Amino acid sequence: MLYPIICKVPQTAGSLGKKALTAALSCYARDTLMLSGQFSGFFPKVLKKDPNGAPIASSGVNWSIAHKPDYVCGVVSRDKTGIDLEKIKPVSEALFNRICTQQEAGLFPYDPRSLVFFRVFTAKEAVLKAAGVGLKGLSRVRVTEVPDALNIHVLYDNQGYEVAHFFVDQYIVSVVKQRETVAWQMGKL
User: Exposed, middle or buried: residue 99 (CB in 10 Å: 0-12, 13-18, 19+)?
Assistant: First the structure.
């Protein structure tokens, strides 16, 4: 079972300066890992990243976090995983075309373009986090199937990934789930 945790950022964080807010959001996101661990029963001993900024597994526990000014999220897993969080908003045609191919967009015949964009973008970002490469691998990742409104299949360097979506307020959260069942949890900081 995979337990991604999503938490609303305390309103007091809004009064912080930009640098302090970024540091606070990172701390809040790391707190979600401990909450995820409480559900799963395992915790990373240390939270280190490689020179490219990718999380390093600790004691066989993989982890991933994401944060925005309103929400933070995190997940721990025995398998490689990645999580991403974005606010759904309008995007330019140029940005849409940079992230979504025509073939990918065609997999969502009834969804608004902004939703298509963020389902695709967050799924790709979560997969690239799981692969440990970040956005530099964006040109090699493709959405291949959309089974339903909460799941998406992605291919990166000939390896398939399953990604689950969760929606809260105007945000979408995507997590690489592989073989696991996902039990989304709203936490409290």
Answer: middle
CA-based nearest residue to 75, from 189, 185, 167: 185
CA–CA distance, 44 with 18 (Å, rounded to integer)? 28
Beta strands of the chain (E only): which ranges? Answer: 5-8, 48-49, 55-56, 62-67, 71-77, 83-87, 141-148, 151-156, 159-168, 171-176, 185-187
pLDDT tens digit sequence for 63-85:
999 999 999 999 999 999 999 99
Distances (CA, A) of 109 to 21, 98, 101, 124, 183: 38, 19, 14, 19, 28
SS3 167: strand
Find where tokens 């959260």 sit: 173
**CA–CA distance, 154 with 162 (Å, rounded to integer):** 6
Contacts of 148 (CB under 8 A, 6+ apart): none
pLDDT at 3 over 90: yes
Distances 186 to 44, 168, 175, 183 between C-alpha atoms, Å: 20, 9, 14, 10
Residue type, 171: Y
> What's the rounded mean pLDDT across residues 106-131?
96
Res 134: pLDDT: 78
Which residue in 86, 110, 81 sits closest to 99, CA to CA? 86
